[in-house]
Every structure is written in structure tokens, then in C-alpha cells.
Design a protein that fits this description.
The chain is mostly beta strands. It has 2 helices and 23 strands. The chain has helices at 2-9, 12-18; strands at 29-38, 41-49, 67-73, 80-88, 95-97, 103-107, 110-119, 124-131, 139-140, 154-157, 163-167, 178-179, 182-183, 200-203, 216-217, 220-221, 239-246, 249-255, 262-267, 274-281, 292-296, 299-306, 318-323. Strands 5, 6, 7, 8 and 9 form a 5-stranded antiparallel beta sheet that branches. The protein has a 5-stranded mixed beta sheet with strand order 16-20-19-18-17, with no helix packed on it. It has a 4-stranded antiparallel beta sheet with strand order 1-2-3-4, with no helix packed on it. The chain is globular and about 45 Å long. The structure holds beta-L-arabinofuranose. Beta-L-arabinofuranose (FUB) is lined by residues 31-32, 47, 63, 100-101, 151-152, 169, 239-240, 288, 290.
């Protein structure tokens, strides 16, 4: 992480001059943007980055976020409005700290915020909170969602109205401690030619606060139909899964973590297997990269973050938005956040 920050530190001014987009807001730091169109407007559900004073560590302890603010935009090119605090960790009975990347969904007149946080034992769990309005305030369920774990929830609504909860992140996100939905502290990230770990996915029930089935692991295949290897760090899943659908095909996009790429894979089922297709976004300033993909008035947009505004402080990030080009063959054109 230090190496990445140092390399970028010397280039910051040049990168800023070539940045393809500006922060949506600059009065607070925001990250991990999950964008949706609700009531004809764009609502963005980001993490709210703060400097909590926690020391840097490999588990992401320095990401000490405590609450969520929802951002609203009339158009992707317009001003973003900060709708204020939507949920605070002190109001979540089971959560103790680290309100990481959230997502939101709508069903039957209610809005739902899905969020990871550590419980009193230091384990990441995924919670859900409900509201009458897209911007909240959200009222949390008293317990985390049974059967969900790790971080980075993303809720995908299919054309038939079915909602799927997808989640997962390795290293500080603790996904490597689970096999077949069972936790074992002895498990580590697989190594070498062993298959890489995949995010988990399960259908939500109609009430949107429970899983309707045990989650399954999503497998990502290479061009030969083999699961991506654990040592394939420039392609394997790390964190930040996101699902969208284009021309009847499912797209899974995600961060490769220590190689700092946003990649994507496609499938004919939300459960996969998905086949790796390429890079969406080359590395941004800061260690993490995390995104969402959202259509607004017939055009696709990538919402992402970088740490340029804070001068490269990796846990003080800013969310941004840029058009995303889907090619005629269904591939996604690679975006370079600071020009080519
Ligand atoms: O924002 C905290 C964590 O950093 C997120 O959960 C990860 O996806 C990474 O962006």
C-alpha cells in the first residue's frame, strides 16, 4: 500500500491535470459509490470516508467509517446534493464499527439500504435498513442478515423483479475465512493454481430483509473455461462485486484489489459461471478501487472513486462519474481515469 501511495504521490499534479472527471462532492470524502435511478433521479449510496485515527493495517482498520450520506443528482452531469446522514453506526444494534461499502434497492414502495459493518466480535456482517424515501433516514433491522457475511453487498434486480444479494471481499473483508458458507479462522486465501475465491450470491425474499436461499459461490472462468487461479492477481476477484444486465447478458464487475483494476466477466445466469472479459478501469490514485454501473436515460455510466482530492490518502476518497461505453459486441471499453 505504501509503495502504491508513494508511486502515485510524485505524479499527483500531473494526474489531476488529466483526470477525466471531478469529485461529485468535495465537502466530505466519499467512496464505493452504488448508483441507482429512483423516482427518475440518480441516487448514489457511497461510503462516507473519515480519518478515524485508526492506524494503517493490512485488514483495512484505517477505514473507520461511522455513517452513510446519500447523494442525489438530477442528471449524471449535474450537481450532486448531499441528502445528509441516512444511517449511523450508533443506531445499528448489532454493529460496532467500520460501515463499509453499501448498496440500496427498492421494492413495493420501500427503499432498502444494505451495509457491512463489524459486530462486537470483529466479524463483518451484512445488515439491512428500510426507509420510505430513497435518501432515508433508514431504520435498521435489529439483527444482521442470516447467511450473509464478509463485505460489499450489491443488490441486483432482474427483469422479472427478483432481487439477488451478492457480496464478498478478501483480506480485510474476511471472505477467505469461509468455505461452503461456513466460517473457519484457519482458512486463508487460496494460493498458486488453486481456484480463486468468488463472491457469493443468493436470492432475497419478497420482504427484502432475508435471503430466500443459501448463497452460492460465483465461479469466474478464464478463456479456456477453467476457474481463474488464485495466483492470477490481475484477474481474480478481490472485492466490490456489482451485477448489471445488458442485452440479456449478465455482467459481474469487481476489483482485483492488490492489482488495482476494475474487471468484468459475463454469463447467461446471475449465479454464473461467468467468463472473464477484460478491464473496465485502470488503477486510480489510492489503493482501493470500487464502482457501480448504472443506466440513466438509455446511457451507461461508471461510478467510481479515487483519492486525488485528499492528495492520495488512501482512506479519504471521492466518488466520481463518467460515461461507460458498451461496444456492439457486448464488451466494455476500458476507461483510463487520467487519460491514456
Ligand atoms: O471502503 C471500505 C472498503 O474499501 C470497501 O468495502 C472496499 O470495497 C474498498 O473500497
Amino acid at each position: 500500500q505504501d509503495l502504491q501511495s508513494r508511486r502515485q504521490g510524485s505524479d499527483l499534479q500531473q494526474l489531476a491535470a488529466h483526470a477525466i472527471s471531478q469529485p461529485l462532492v468535495s465537502h466530505i470524502y466519499t467512496a464505493d459509490p452504488s448508483a441507482h435511478v429512483f423516482e427518475g433521479r440518480l441516487y448514489i449510496y457511497p461510503s462516507h470516508d473519515i480519518d478515524s485515527g485508526a492506524p494503517f493495517d493490512d485488514e483495512g482498520g484505517h477505514f473507520g467509517m461511522q455513517d452513510y450520506h446519500v447523494l442525489r443528482m438530477d442528471t449524471p452531469e449535474g450537481e450532486a446534493t448531499d441528502c445528509g446522514v441516512a444511517l449511523h453506526v450508533r443506531d445499528v444494534p448489532w454493529a460496532s464499527q467500520q460501515m463499509w461499502a453499501p448498496d440500496a434497492a427498492f421494492r413495493d414502495g420501500r427503499y432498502y439500504l444494505y451495509f457491512p459493518a463489524k459486530d462486537a466480535h470483529g466479524m463483518f456482517r451484512i445488515g439491512v435498513a428500510a426507509a420510505d424515501r430513497p435518501e432515508g433516514p433508514f431504520t435498521p433491522e435489529p439483527e444482521p442478515i442470516k447467511g450473509a457475511y464478509s463485505i460489499d453487498p450489491a443488490v441486483f434486480e432482474d427483469d422479472d423483479g427478483t432481487h439477488y444479494l451478492c457480496f464478498g471481499g478478501i483480506w480485510g473483508g474476511q471472505l477467505q475465512k469461509y468455505r461452503d458458507n461456513r466460517y473457519d479462522p484457519a482458512h486463508e486465501e487460496p494460493a498458486g493454481e488453486a481456484p480463486a475465491l468468488g463472491p457469493r450470491i443468493g436470492r432475497l425474499d419478497a420482504g427484502m430483509t432475508r435471503l430466500a436461499e443459501p448463497t452460492r459461490e460465483i465461479v469466474i472462468l478464464d478463456e479456456h473455461g477453467q476457474p481463474l487461479r488464485a495466483d492470477d492477481h490481475s484477474r481474480r476477484f478481490f472485492e466490490g462485486p456489482w451485477l448489471h444486465k445488458h442485452q440479456g447478458r449478465y455482467y459481474l464487475s469487481y476489483s482485483t484489489g492488490d492489482t488495482h483494476l476494475l474487471c468484468y466477466a459475463t454469463s447467461d445466469s446471475p449465479y454464473g459461471p461467468f467468463t472473464y472479459r477484460g478491464v473496465i478501469l485502470t488503477p486510480v490514485v489510492g489503493w482501493t478501487t470500487h464502482h457501480s454501473i448504472c443506466a440513466f436515460q438509455g446511457r451507461w455510466y461508471l461510478f467510481y472513486h479515487d483519492a486525488l482530492l485528499s492528495g492520495g490518502v488512501t482512506h479519504l476518497r471521492s466518488v466520481k462519474c463518467t460515461p461507460l461505453h458498451m461496444e456492439a459486441d457486448g464488451s466494455i471499453r476500458t476507461i483510463h481515469p487520467y487519460g491514456t
